[in-house]
Amino acid sequence: MNHKNVKLAAGLYFVATPIGTARDITLRGLDILANADVIAAEDTRSMRKLLDIHGISLGDRPLIAYHDHSGATVRQKLSSLIEGGKAVAYASEAGTPLIADPGYHLAKEIADSGHLVTSAPGPSAILAALTLAGLPTDRFLFEGFLPNSKSQRITQMQELAAIPATLVFYESPKRLIAMLQDAVAVFGADRPAAYCRELTKKFEDIQRGSLADLVERAKASTIKGEIVVLIDRPNKEAVNENDLDDELRAALATLSIRDASEAVARAFGVPKRKVYQRALELGKDKH
Ligand code: SAM
Predict the structure, then answer these.
(1) Is the CB–ligand 1 distance for residue 96 below 6 Å?
(2) What is the pLDDT of residue 238?
(3) Rounded distance, CA 42 to CA 90, Å?
(4) Which one-letter DSSP state was computed for residue 7?
(5) Which region among 57-61, 69-73, 183-187 has the lowest average model confidence (pLDDT)?
(6) What is the pLDDT of residue 235?
(7) Which CATH class is domain 126-234?
(8) Ligand 1 centre and the CA of 250: distance in Å?
(9) CATH number of 11-123
């Protein structure tokens, strides 16, 4: 038995669950699942399976399905259980609750009502992927899933192109190639990137390279399973100031200063403010 008997105070306990390998759960996570008065889960079947694997009996404790669209009714029920002194454990289907998963509205409501909200942290695909991608981890931006529509996806990528941080996306195997192709168009073929597939599972697969390399590799294999895509920040040193000026002059011939700066900033992956400043200087030089 990996868990021990502990008395839990009334409140909401988020428990991170495995993203693949079933033993990736903390001892405290197991203690909470074993001792909570009530268990709530995004997917009650996966929860039963997890309890089974770890030898935790549900007994006569309630197991309640909750996701954020279950709406106010289930939330209200969980809230009154906590109000009545119960410890409620909550887990999403895999990984950390609230991370591209339900739990936000529940956490907010219980915290707003002044009750204990705490967490047994553990696996999340974001952190496992950042650990393995070979890209800088000092600063990262988690974007979750991009929109399904190609044009919306491209617009969203354009908003991210100049951000000086490693970008982290969740992606589906069906969309991986299309997403990487769009990324080549927006971030450039040479931008370093990685995709991490089936993390912590038997066929864990990490591909690192330029975006163009990754498109080729994804096309050459059968893409299955769960995926995280990571894209490096723009390489400031690689921006040739003369090239940027040429591009900016050309853009200024047909566009307003604002639109020209925006287009060039996006193309070079540099901050808009900087290009706008340069556009003003180039404008002055002309007179
Ligand atoms: N809450 C989870 C977490 O903390 O990572 C994420 C839930 S989200 C609904 C599911 C997505 O996470 C998948 O589509 C995939 O992009 C990513 N993911 C989850 N498990 C993964 C794994 N084992 N390997 C790679 N990506 C994974």
Answers:
(1) yes
(2) 67
(3) 8
(4) P
(5) 69-73
(6) 85
(7) alpha beta
(8) 43
(9) 3.40.1010.10
Q: Please return the burial class of 202, using the count of CB atoms within 10 Å of its CB with bins 0-12, 13-18 and 19+.
A: exposed
Residues in the chain: 287
Look at residues 82, 63, 75, 62 and name the one whose alpha carbon lies nearest to residue 106: 75
Q: What is the pLDDT of residue 285?
A: 64
Per-residue tokens: 65: 């399905």
Mean pLDDT for the stretch of residues 23-44: 97
Residue in 226, 229, 230 to alter for ligand 1 test, most ligand atoms within 8 A of Cβ: 226
Residue 226 confidence (pLDDT) above 70: yes
How many CA atoms lie less than 13 Å away from 281 in the CB half-sphere?
A: 8
Residues in a beta bridge with 120? 15
Residue 170 Cα: closest atom of ligand 1:
16
CA atoms within 13 A on the CB side of 181: 9
Q: Is the pLDDT of residue 60 over 80?
A: yes
Whether 212 lines ligand 1, by a CB cut-off of 6 Å, is no
**Separation CA 106–CA 65 (nearest Å):** 13
